[in-house]
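Fig. S4 source data, part A: sequence.
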Amino acid sequence: MLVCPGSMRDRLGVDILSDVVTVMRTGRPVSARVEWHSPWTQRFAEVPGAAGFQVVLQGTCRIMGPAPIHLGVGDVVFLPHATDHVLANGDSATTVTLCGAYEVDPGRVHPLLLSLPERIHLPARLGRHPELRAAVDLLSAELENPRVGSDAVVPALLEALLLYILRAYFEEQPPEGWAAALRDQRITAALQAIHNEPGRQWTVASLAARAGMSRAPFARTFKELIGQPPLTYLTWWRMTTAGRLLRDTDMSLSAIATKVGYTSEFAFAHAFKRETAQAPGRFRSTVE
């Protein structure tokens, strides 16, 4: 096996956006390629605990509402909270769309996702977001012509598509909130420290040192951009990490407690129940 001296992950730390997708996703994403013939209208009901998307592959259509959005080939609409919406035909006889949904843990939705608007429209523009366009093309091809391995390829492409959608959105946003945080190397350094070592006994001062800032300006800037004080976010991330380990692994409670920074199983169980309203053992039994 080829071993590289110092992985890219070691040098760059944790990718915050990838972590957000990892913690928010549960179950298996689904998608479908749909062909519509004019005239047509389709209502998509709200799906609690989900995020969804619509992509126009051929023709035109509209997403209805107080301010209808006209969609053309290559346009992407992301619905972070899977709110109900209506699609209707545009000025083409045939429209082909790619739609999909991701299951989201409603109890542990990352604050980055909560900060997103009800609808995100990413219009197709020549030369913009080529990775997003490539993921759409690959996913469409797999759904139109399933082949050996499609059962593994499609979920992987859906995961990539979600990351590309979020990346494209944050790249185009004015520097406010999480959009600014992801571009601010100082705050990103502190977030990476929390995500990479949730079990470390971080303080505001030590996180500020990671950010290369003095304590008070760091705490103020972190709260302005992230929406929570540094140690509140640290606790949230610890409990979210613990929940994922309880759900996806057979690690013992004491091992998980150590992993997320608690010196005893009792202290961890108390903190976890305070944060989630469930004891760790009960939480694990409900997801098995």
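Fig. S4 source data, part B ends here. The chain has two domains: 11-172, 180-287.
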